[in-house]
Amino acid sequence: MRRGIRRDPKAIEMQLKGYRLSTAEILYWMPDHPSVLQSFVWQHYDRPPEFPELHRFLGFWKDNIDATLHTVRVACADAIKAPSMRTAQAVYQIHGAASYTSGH
Hints:
Layout: H1 9-16, E1 20-29, E2 37-46, H2 52-64, E3 68-76, E4 90-91, E5 100-101
Antiparallel strand pairs: 1-2, 1-3, 4-5
């Protein structure tokens, strides 16, 4: 088996259909401690800017979870793009020879 990053064919197919890897940070009031905010992170492939999967999840939350929502912050990844590579600006070695830092 070839080592490295495994790509999910379904994820690529979804991205071609306009879906993006989306992350939502959900702040909610804890039901047993109403003065305490708790954080929950949700991640799924979704279609910006409507985010139907997130809305479906938030609907489930409101219908089935006693915690009251405070804030929902959403971010999503860019569309499929070519892989990129950057060179390291510095290389450090903890034990042994001295470190190397490029002149850039």
